[in-house]
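Can anyone check this?
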Amino acid sequence: MKILGIGNAIVDVLCKVSDEFLIKHSLTKSTMKLIDEEEFIKLLSSLTIEQTISGGSVANSIVGLSQLGNKVGFLGKVNDDELGQKYVDGLKKEKVEYLYHKKKEVIPTGSCLILITPDSERTMCTFLGTSGKISENDIDIEQIKNSEFLFLEGYLWDEGDPKKAFDVAINSAKKVAMSLSDVFCVERHKPHFLELVKNRLDIIFANEQEILSLIDVKSIDEAVSFAKEIKKNVIITRGEKGAIGIDINQVFECNANSNLKIKDLTGAGDLFAAGYLHGLLNNFSLKESLIKGTELSSKIIQKIGARL
């Protein structure tokens, strides 16, 4: 395989809401909040579902890479239940090799409520379910060794079994890319994420808010200097300001596409990563890879959901 992704196997449940709904339920716009099954059911009871689709950050990127013609695989934990089967079917449909054999678990398959406000921003309430219980026993070391890249998501990292799974996977990989995922994850695991970024990852995807939080700085220039110092390939997405790619001493900026009919920002970062990684796999330059990432993220935000 070209790229093997490991991440949360989450079924996305998309719903349109008002800003008042977020305020009423004490939710912070454009962030992700972890919730338990009881809260998930309670929130869903007052909503109208627009769409249900297999998702998860890295899984969305892997699907994007598959759609571009790359041979890819994904490992994420689901239960042998209705949502779990829906998840597997969604990946198979997209020609992604699914590398986990589902079995009956006590905890159900994970779900994410994606709440879309009129300004197209998305606020996520995630019930991780069994996806957050991934362990080193679930990792297929040989598959990782036979892949050119391993792609991980910050959403999945946690103390205990997930950390052990990450360690085993990273130690087996040729090259490792990771998305910092959300400022919530960065704040929660800052020392661990900083160690990963400095010492164990080759490619890092972050939005501006995440990278500034990680290294406790105020300006994008300071973030670029940090990326140069650690001599890594760091990609910083900045929404309407475009994206910056730093690869050791190379720095390129790519403008965001304009005049887009934005419907939903869900998956913008995931599809940007897919486009960028597609560029790396196919020997594009840093600038060309940034342009490809921008092209895919521009497409996804003009439709509902995180899959093209």
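Reply from J.R.: I decoded it. The first strand starts at residue 3 and ends at 6.
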